[in-house]
Amino acid sequence: MAKQRIGRGPLDVALQDTPTSHPRLYVRDGNGLVVVLPVPPRSLPAVRVHLDRSGPGRECDVELVDDRGEVASRWGVFTDPGAAAALAAVLIGTDRDLVGARVVAPAGGPATAR
User: Domain limits of the chain?
Assistant: First the structure.
């Protein structure tokens, strides 16, 4: 099961997708690398779409939801809702206990629009 990870600065993601390697999503905070996640082939189109639509926005977190509808983990803080959604697509694609995700305001604030 994915665990919540919070860095010392806003989290950002970058996709490494070269023909000679397996796609990976790099998650970084203001101090460096937090985690590298393999991108499942079935998740790659969604990751690309989210990153193509990314841009600066309000701070947000991503909540990952299990099959009971409960929040299984929360990742944040992101400054780009597209980056948060790309991370969610990878985590849902790699964890069969996760069934959904939502981009929300950080630490329980009101939800942000995207």
Answer: 12-104
